[in-house]
Amino acid sequence: MAFNDIIAHKTNTFTLFVAIPISIITAFVLVKVDFVYALTIAIGLAVLITTFINTDYGIYALIFSMLLSPEFGERSTQGSGMTIRIDDILLVVILFTWLAKMALNKDLGLFKKSPLNKPIAYYTFICFFATGAGMLFHNVKVLNGFFFLLKYIQYFLIYFLVVNHVRSKKQFDNFTISLIITYIIVTISSIIQIPSGHRVTAPFEGDAGEPNTLGGYLIFIIAINLCLILSPGVIEKPKYRRWLLIITVLSVIPFLLTNSRGSWVAAIPVIIAYIILSSRRWVIIGFVIFFILMAPIVLPDTVIDRVKYTFQKQQGYAATLQENVGGVTLDTSASERVRSWRDAWDGVKKHPLFGYGITGWRFLDAQYMRVLVETGFFGFAAFFYLLHSILNETWKVFKTAKIPFFKYFAQGFFVATIAMMTHGIGANTFIIIRIMEPFWLVCGLVISIPYIEEIEMKKLEDLKEEVTRIKLGTI
């Protein structure tokens, strides 16, 4: 009997003998605990049951929770403290149910063979080794190092979950639509924040929200959207393409009002990439020229002031805190970042091979220097091998994909990855949960494209064979 048939056959039994008793026990427990914990438990149980029946439901829940789930706990802007999110719990639940399905069907595997398995394994091993050594030499606090490693593994597990599970274009389309719906909700939520006068942040981030996180997420999705918008015929219905264009243009407003200079810089390779790759490059060039000419008129003063402040020389004591790089004077914030990089480089010299371990060095808001000081040159090489593998495999998918939507979705992810690599110059982009969860989910979708096309082509051949047999009267 096929696995889906087994699940369908056992669903009623599972519901009767497992779900109902658990629900009764939970009802007695929930009345005695805090509402937040009660809600979390209830959501977790609901996801467990629905995911066991159909893993798609769990992935939908995960997609929406990536940007729309609240955080519990406290953290500082310097990286101290700890928070837990609904999607952390959902991911554990989804993976637990996946393991349960594996127990029922040996054909399912947690780590399906894919082109990124090796680079992920190399980087993960070095992170574990460096952090373990850091714990032994008392550079890393055990709990801090453990939970950060867990976060890294969590991102990779999202990738493996998607690669293992997505097997049809319908699934691919539905998950993409869910990503876009989440993006629309985030955009609307960000626009609603504008009248407050504060820098806009992602939903449910509270007072300690990070505008840089929202900026990174928005440019990541915008980069993918642009490829679908600029490629005629990729989206079959023109009205959907127009709506995607409208929401993408609208999302540029909160993107600018994050006042995140790192995110703005990440937009530059996106523009350059589409000028090179797109057949509609003159549209992009025209828009860029128009934007530059109109910027002093249409851009809010906060955005213009933010740009000017970056290179504005201060007076008095503030001037002593400014750094001069290549003849350019940087503001105090950027100067502090440069000084932290310089200090980190001194640390690298002391531990050049495997670094201080994850969280072994003090807070550092720069992805590449952080990788270098925490995992040394071995970790740095493994990290770039992973990024190179992502770009290389994504480009292969773009060049070989036969279905237009798949082809240009892969191209969009290629450009978006370059944008994230640029964003990582001034931020810990590849460990920020609200950026990396969507990133690794989309990465899993893109790497799945060759397998999906192979399955879809096989279905088409079977259908043609069946039609032929019907015409010949053998059925």
Task: Describe the structure in brief.
This protein has 475 residues and is mainly alpha-helical. It is 74% helix and 3% strand.
Task: Give a structural overview.
The protein is mainly alpha-helical and 475 residues long. The protein has a domain at 1-110. 74% of the residues lie in helices and 3% in strands. It is built from 17 helices and 4 strands. The strands form 2 sheets. It has a two-stranded antiparallel ribbon. It has a two-stranded antiparallel sheet with strand order 3-4. A hairpin with a 5-residue loop joins strand 1 and strand 2. Residues 1-12 have low confidence and may be disordered.
Percent helix:
over 70%
Intertermini distance: 24 Å
Fraction of residues in β-strands: under 5%
Principal-axes shape call: globular
Uncertain residue ranges:
1-12
The total of helices stands at 17
Strand order of the largest sheet: 1-2
Structural class: mainly alpha
* Overall pLDDT: 82
- Main sheet: strands, sense, barrel: 2 strands, antiparallel
Let me know the number of strands.
4
- What integer value in Å does the Rg equal? 24 Å
How would you spell out the order of helices and strands? HHHEEHHHHHHHHHHEEHHHH
Secondary-structure map:
Elements: H1 3-30, H2 35-53, H3 55-68, E1 71-75, E2 81-85, H4 86-104, H5 117-136, H6 142-165, H7 169-193, H8 211-230, H9 238-257, H10 261-277, H11 281-298, H12 301-310, H13 317-320, E3 324-325, E4 328-329, H14 332-350, H15 367-400, H16 404-423, H17 433-471
Antiparallel strand pairs: 1-2, 3-4
